[in-house]
Write a structure and sequence with these properties.
The chain is α/β, with parallel strands linked by helices. It folds into 2 domains: 3-46 and 91-98 and 114-125 and 216-330, Glycoside hydrolase/deacetylase (TIM Barrel, Alpha-Beta Barrel), CATH 3.20.20.370; 132-207, no CATH class. 43% of the residues lie in helices and 16% in strands. The chain is built from 12 helices and 12 strands. The strands form 3 sheets. Strands 1, 4, 5, 6, 9, 10, 11 and 12 form an 8-stranded parallel beta sheet that branches. A two-stranded parallel sheet has the order 2-3. α2 (18-25) runs parallel beside α12 (323-330). Bound molecules: zinc ion. Zinc ion is lined by residues 95-96, 232, 236, 272.
């Protein structure tokens, strides 16, 4: 269903009191929201991961009115000890560690006193480097060319003109690149940037919306007492695609880096990409060996107190989620 149709369906469901009824019926369940980035309302691009700032602010205000927003650690402790949580408990999380989490999301969270956990892709934090998926997106948008031949990489001879067509090609290359080895992906990226004749040093200013925070920004957020940090893999590689030794280092290195930089004993973890097929049972085992305290997935749904803390469900909020749909999704309606 298209986002606009879903919004209408949810508006009708809300007007009939369905979301409110579900919220009450599922009041003992735990809502863990998953965000990524927050951008200016008039940002010159649209990505599912980048929510307009006013939409994010509204969602947080609404959440504070209808839920009891608690730190992830408090909820984990209750899940492990069996102690009760307030009705309609919610947790706010951000994946990746984009710098706009600091510049745009943090001021809103501070203003409203909402705690949150940010999962860091540690190899990128403080480097200014663009993650691989963003490099594909920005290269296609920045090139003056209208053709990209990637047949030798198992892809197509792409032709494009408008920004929408360029974004569609980026999405296709990006989903292909998710499933190949890191070194093969780097070779693909280098060829892609060379063939598109782009200079990443001359990308438009909005490329910064895809860069990660500095450790100083991370520490400033931590010092506020409101924001906690966890690990999200070193390089955001999909764990199930990796040989065991590489999977282990993706997990252990990122947990160690968060522990070393921030002095945290039990690090929380969110699986990169996070669908059921993206983290094998071995990854859960490795997390426990690395003394991580949980594993958050991107599998849609609310959590119950007895759930496996190494496979926690979340409700992912994309840039296209309006008010009606947000209220419905928080109650578990239409979340997959
Ligand atoms: Zn991620």
């Amino acid at each position: 269903m298209k986002a606009s149709c879903q919004e209408i369906f949810c508006a009708v469901a809300n007007s009939l009191g369905l979301s409110r009824m579900l919220r009450h019926r599922r009041r003992k369940d735990i809502l863990i929201l998953m965000y990524h980035g927050v951008v200016e309302d008039n940002a010159p691009f649209k990505r599912w991961t980048h929510l307009p700032a006013s939409r994010f602010a509204w969602q947080m205000e609404w959440l504070r009115r209808h839920y009891r927003v608690l730190p992830l650690q408090r909820v984990l402790a209750a899940m492990q000890t069996g102690s009760t949580l307030p009705d309609n408990t919610a947790v706010v999380t951000f994946d990746d560690g984009l710098q706009n989490t600091y510049t745009r999301a943090f001021p809103t969270l501070k203003r409203l006193g909402i705690p949150a956990t940010v999962f860091l892709t540690t190899a990128y934090v403080g480097t200014g480097k663009l993650p691989t998926s963003s490099r594909i997106f920005l290269a296609l948008r920045s090139s003056r060319l209208r053709r990209l031949d990637l047949r030798d990489h198992g892809l197509k001879d792409f032709q494009f003109d408008t920004m929408a067509q360029r974004d569609a090609v980026a999405d296709e290359v990006r989903s292909y690149a998710k499933n190949i080895a890191f070194e093969t992906k780097l070779a693909l990226l280098n060829d892609l940037e060379a063939r598109l004749e782009v200079d990443p040093a001359r990308y438009p200013e909005y490329a910064d919306e895809f860069r990660m925070m500095s450790w100083q920004q991370v520490k400033l957020m931590q010092q506020s007492g409101l924001i906690n940090f966890g690990a999200h893999g070193s390089r955001h590689e999909i764990l199930s695609r990796l040989p065991h030794d590489v999977m282990r280092s993706e997990i252990v290195d990122s947990c160690e880096e968060v522990r070393r930089q921030l002095g945290i004993e039990h690090v929380t973890f969110a699986y990169p990409n996070g669908r059921r097929q993206d983290f094998p049972p071995e990854a859960k085992q490795m997390l426990q060996e690395a003394s991580a305290s949980c594993g958050l997935s991107a599998i849609g749904g609310l959590c119950s107190t007895g759930d496996d803390v190494f496979e926690l469900k979340r409700v992912g909020v994309g840039n296209n989620v309006g008010r009606s749909r947000f209220a419905a999704m928080c109650s578990g309606l239409g979340v997959r």
